[in-house]
Design goal:
The chain has about 350 residues and is of the alpha/beta class. The protein has two domains: about 160 residues, Isopropylmalate Dehydrogenase (3-Layer(aba) Sandwich); about 170 residues, Isopropylmalate Dehydrogenase (3-Layer(aba) Sandwich), CATH 3.40.718. The chain is built from twelve helices and twelve strands. Strands 3-2-1-4-12-11-5 form a seven-stranded mixed β-sheet, sandwiched between helices. A five-stranded mixed β-sheet has the order 6-7-10-8-9. The radius of gyration is 21 Å and the shape is globular.
């Protein structure tokens, strides 16, 4: 039985989305045991009347909620009874708990995970790795995407190693085609960090490095993984998601502008629904924090039940694949770089 903690407060749709997503995950995975952290009375009220296996679901009372505007360092010192910090501390202290999922404050989650959980031996810095769909029907990972605004070439190489193992072991991507986010495809493009990282990645046999990638090619299907500093990676992901959302809005507006367009849209209704689902980030789970001592998955703040369910599934698959031990083994093969 794999035990996973679910932080049930902090997201836009908490705790309804977390409870519904948790029950859906339990129904699909008989070897899953969930522990929900949050205000016990509110969670019990949300569970009332729902059908589920009560032997595989526990509530951990944690009445405090972390706001997105609170300083992460204050949170880990002063809000030990918050749903997020209670989950992090339990994850650290209980050997039989494998992972946690949270849709709360990113800064608090990263700080709490680093201070309370620590890193996999050999990992310099953990990194976020969200997934997006590609035009070829596959997925592409972006690592890092928010955890490390400033990086060294050694960080970027470790991001590539960890994320390649993640895609291989959790999603079955054979030898993920890995690119370095840059301002041009030529090897000499970019700053000193990018040029040195390019050389390091070429010297990393466990990474299928295919060169630099320009941001416009992210969804092309030519790449399975893109390595970046946390600032650039986060901008890349949010710009891509935002562009897709605005294009869908414009398409809908244009369709309703003329009767002829409405008739055509009616005939293509199924296709439009499929495209909407294809670009819906809720279907791709959360952003895993690679490199922490135990599995941590960060869901989007606006995650609904289906996204929470996917986050739990990600955590479950990461644990059964023994990803952390594989990362430790692979990182140890390479020379250690200081921060």
């Amino acid at each position: 039985m794999i035990k996973i903690l679910v932080d049930c407060f902090g997201g836009d749709h908490s705790p309804q989305a977390q409870v519904a997503g948790s029950l859906a995950a339990l129904a699909k995975n008989p070897n899953l045991h969930l522990l929900l952290t949050g205000d016990q009375a509110l969670l019990e009220a949300e569970l009332k009347g729902k059908t589920y296996d009560a032997t595989r679901l526990d509530i951990i009372h944690a009445p405090e909620v972390i706001g997105c505007d609170e300083k992460p360092t204050d949170v880990i010192r002063l809000k030990r009874n918050s749903s997020m910090m209670k989950a992090i501390i339990l994850l650290r202290d209980e050997d039989d708990i494998a992972a946690m999922v949270s849709c709360g404050s990113t800064g608090a989650l990263v700080t709490g995970a680093l201070v309370r959980l620590g890193r996999i031996p050999g990992v310099i810095r953990p990194a976020f790795c969200p997934l997006l769909p590609t035009m070829e029907g596959g997925i592409v990972g972006i690592c890092d995407s928010g955890a490390n605004p400033e990086v060294t070439p050694a960080h970027l190489r470790q991001f590539a190693i960890m994320a390649s193992l993640y895609l291989e072991n959790v999603y079955g991507v054979d030898k993920p085609r890995t690119a370095l986010l840059n301002v041009g495809k030529e090897a000499e493009k970019g700053d000193d960090i990018r040029r040195e990282a390019y050389q390091l990645l070429q010297q990393t046999p466990s990474v299928n490095f295919v060169g630099n990638m320009e941001s416009r090619d992210l969804l092309s299907g030519a790449y399975d993984l893109v390595v970046a500093d946390g600032f650039s990676g986060n901008v890349l992901v949010k710009t891509t998601e935002g562009t897709a959302i605005e294009l869908l809005k414009k398409l809908k507006k244009d369709i309703y502008s003329r009767t002829l367009y409405k008739v055509g849209a009616l005939l293509m209704k199924r296709m439009f629904q499929e495209e909407k689902e294809f670009m819906n980030y809720q279907n791709y789970g959360g952003s895993v924090l690679l490199g922490t001592a135990k599995v941590v998955v960060k869901g989007h703040g606006s995650s609904k039940a289906v996204a929470v369910e996917k986050c739990i599934e990600q955590a479950y698959r990461m644990e059964i694949s023994k990803l952390s031990s594989k990362i430790e083994t692979e990182i140890a093969r390479y020379e250690h770089y200081e921060e």
